[in-house]
Amino acid sequence: SRQLTRHVMPMFHSEGIYLAGGDDNNNNANGEDDDAAGGKPAAAAVDAAAQQQVQEVGGDGVSTIMDTLPTNNTTTTTPTTSIHQTKRSIVISGVTSGLGRALLGYFYNHGHIVAGCGRNADEILVLQGHFPNAKLSVVDVADDASVQLWAESICSGGSGNDNDENTTQEQRNEERGQVDLVIANAGISPETLYPTKSTAWEVPRQDFDETIDVNVKGVANMIRHFVPRMVKNNNGTFVAMSSGLGRSPNPYQVAYCASKWAVEGMVKSLAMSLPLDGEMCAVPLAPGVVQTGGGGGSVDGKNNNNDGSSSSSSSGNIDKWIEVAGPMILGLSGKDNGKSLSVKGFYSVRYRQTWSFQDGSGI
Fold first, then answer.
1. Tally of CB atoms within 10 A around 38
2. Closest CA to 298 of 94, 20, 77, 102
3. Using CA atoms, how far apart are residues 354 and 114, in angstroms rounded to an integer?
4. Which of 153, 191, 269, 322 sits a CA distance of 20 to 30 A from 312?
């Protein structure tokens, strides 16, 4: 069989993204966005917000971020007791740390069929030990050929039992390798690690190119090789992790902003192409300000001895986040097609008000 190749790069995680140059096993406490200071002149407010965002992306000030977040962390979702009754076939990119790892653990532990990928072979091996029935692969989403092979390996099932009256629809879907939920989670942000703030003209070409390759082309590759299969079945949900910085600018996160604004446009355009007579949907989802923990996050999406999280805030803790985000993602349907959404309770109200398009904005 053909081998999937990868480019080895140490990484750590922030707001659903891989940050080039870090370490999967040494995640910093972090957050990505917060609101501009109210009452300041526009230019000063933008600069203050930009400085705060840069500090929070790779900084250690989660508690100060959460002081501005809503204390009511409720959201309207399908009750978790019923949302898991139907077994879903789920594909997730970027599962070796942070939000991707939390999503993997959450869906797996609730009995869903999960396939995941990451660029860190060592972490994939560890995760396979924790989740033996998950289909985990080493894949660089920026490599179109690797994504194609990965999709084919997941979706090429089949055992000829379609006409067996004793076989349930869920069993037939599993045997055929049908996928009904794809989460394009992998991403990078090299700018986060710069020792000083860098303006648009100071971002090295290599960093800019790699950000676009992973964050934009990586999502496009996922669309190219998974969505046609879902369209054929007229069933499925495609979620791409966006960002508050995909809805508002930041002078010191130029490459990352460009990539996430592209994700918003790409996924909304995809939504316009989906069949109108089914329950398919495509959604750009801004995950929020989430602390992934100092120990790389827990491997099962829950607190355990391997979780180095030191967050004292329920709003930014990844364990709280997954309990909101997991059911929310499972509950997406045709009525959400093309909407720009965010995980409720994980951005401040004032920051969301600075977005060029608000939560729930459709096509």
1. 8
2. 102
3. 36
4. 191
Predicted local distance difference test score (pLDDT) of residue 82: 76
**pTM, entire model:** 0.74
Query: Which whole number is the average pLDDT over 4-19?
Result: 35
- Asked if pLDDT for residue 91 goes beyond 70, the answer is yes
Q: 8: pLDDT confidence band, cut at 50, 70 and 90?
A: very low
Contact 237, 281 (CB under 8 A): yes
Phi/psi for 340 (5° steps) reads -85, 115
Work out the mean pLDDT of the chain and round it to a whole number.
75
Q: Given this model, what pLDDT does residue 316 score? A: 85
Query: Which residues have a catalytic role annotated?
Result: 256
Is the pLDDT at 9 greater than 80? The verdict is no
Neighbour count for residue 9 (Cβ, 10 Å): 15
